[in-house]
Write a structure and sequence with these properties.
Elements (H helix, E strand, L loop, with lengths): L5 E16 L11 H20 L4 E3 L1 H14 L2 H11 L9 H7 L8 E12 L6 H10 L4 E4 L4 H16 L17 E14 L10 E6 L5 E19 L5 E8 L5 E8 L6 H5 L4 H9 L2 E10 L2 E7 L28 E17 L9 H7 L4 E3 L4 E7 L5 E7 L5
Parallel strand pairs: 3-4, 10-13
Antiparallel strand pairs: 1-5, 1-12, 2-15, 3-5, 6-7, 7-8, 7-10, 8-9, 9-14, 11-12, 14-15
């Protein structure tokens, strides 16, 4: 099969910065690791969705989870317990297939890349726990790098250079940290997720055309819309509040990673009504009950870029102490000074592009007239997520409310 002319390129750096400054029990989980990953991903998204209201939204749970689980390796006491409750893992060393995405999930083909990466930027002269360093090396490539936080410009340049190398993002100064120049800085933890792939079944670029998209506010816009006629996994489901949603799965090359598009079936239903039912349990039911269906699919080209302050959402998931200089316990990372999280920043970007010149083609009306296949037409706000089947990791999850923004 020829590579798709429609590429989806996604890169997400997730930042957790730990600064130097002025016991509870544990419980066991018997959940499947794939379910734990999904539970964290959807819970995180639901909290962000409430905060961000009706705007476009994108987040990489895989990237954030990797950074938090690396912190969990060095957390103790109540800080460790809170991370365990939020992530679901009582043993932070369990289920090492998350970073396996970086080691084994990268296809040598230029058309198919899925890569997790993580690094610790350490203040020169700081002593880390040897056990933490050994364990961290199992999780992250290029794990430890030394820097001098008293030189904020140089440190920021080193961090952004590392981001660019691991995401393919050539933008200079792609992320700035408010406390980069603080004399208290000791550790910066950086996690990235980079995904780029062609569709398994390519869209016909000659049929891309401007079609109407109705935004969350009810405004109509003409946006470039891709068209595909193919057999796909598709289903319609009734939520707990008797709202119908349509789900279509669009696999990428290799079929290990797929995009799921979740659309309210009723054009009068708002995305806010239906996305509150987007839970790990519901999605598991939906994805396991899709059926092969010959369909006409219309999907707008879109781009979303978010810069999220995770300090606004992670405490809502129960991770509170790690942001408090008097309560945080990261003595498993270093006994040298009391460490806590000063900043938790997440930058996410997704872009749907067309390789080559924009072309005209048959109109939607003609396509519909000449085809008797069911139609999946994403001409209004919808949710989407990218899931890796082999690990169960939700690489990205988000919503599109206005493709023109």
């Amino acid at each position: 099969m020829q590579p798709s002319a429609f590429m989806r390129s996604i890169s997400t750096p997730s930042f957790l910065l730990v600064l130097c400054s002025l016991n509870a029990g544990s419980y066991e989980h018997n959940e499947n690791p794939k379910h734990l990953k999904a539970e964290f991903a959807f819970t995180l998204y639901q909290h962000l969705a409430e905060m961000e209201n009706r705007t476009d939204l994108l987040v990489s749970p895989a990237s954030i989870s990797l950074a938090l689980r690396l912190l969990q390796l060095g957390a103790k006491g109540n800080t460790s317990t809170q991370l365990e409750h939020a992530l679901g893992y009582s043993n932070p060393h369990a289920d090492l297939d998350v970073p396996t995405l970086h080691k084994d999930g990268t296809n040598s083909s230029r058309e198919n890349v899925a890569q997790l990466a993580c690094a610790l930027f350490i203040q020169t002269g700081m002593c880390l726990s040897p056990q933490f360093v050994r364990h961290a090396a199992l999780w992250a490539n290029d794990t430890v790098r030394h820097t001098n936080f008293s030189e904020p410009d140089r440190t920021a340049a080193l961090i952004n250079e590392w981001i660019a190398a691991n995401t393919g993002d050539g933008e200079p100064n792609s992320l700035s940290l408010e406390t980069t120049g603080s004399p208290l800085n000791q550790i910066a933890l950086v996690s990235t997720m980079n995904f780029k792939s062609a569709w398994q079944r390519k869209f016909t670029f000659m049929d891309t055309q401007p079609l109407t998209f109705t935004t969350a506010e009810g405004f109509t816009r003409k946006v470039p819309t891709m068209y595909l006629s193919a057999e796909v996994n598709y289903g319609e489901f009734l939520t707990d509040h008797l709202e119908w949603i349509s789900v279509v799965e669009l696999p990428y090359l290799g079929e290990d990673v797929s995009m799921f598009v979740i659309l309210p079936s009723d054009k009068r239903a708002s995305l806010a009504q239906t996305e509150r039912h987007l839970t790990a349990k519901a999605f598991s039911v939906w994805s396991n009950n899709l059926r092969r269906t010959k369909m006409d699919i219309f999907l707008p080209r879109f781009r979303i870029q978010n810069h999220l302050d995770l300090k606004m959402v992670l405490p809502a998931l129960g991770m509170i102490d790690m942001f408090d200089p008097t309560l945080a316990d990261f003595t498993g990372i270093s006994e040298q000074g009391s460490l806590f999280i000063s900043e938790a920043i997440h930058k996410a970007k997704i872009e749907v592009t067309e390789d080559g010149t924009k072309a005209s083609g048959a109109t939607a009306m003609v396509l519909l007239k000449r085809s008797r296949a069911p139609v999946f037409k994403a001409d209004r706000p919808f949710n989407f997520l990218l899931r890796q089947a082999s690990t169960g990791s939700v690489l990205f999850i988000g919503r599109l409310t206005n493709p023109t923004e």
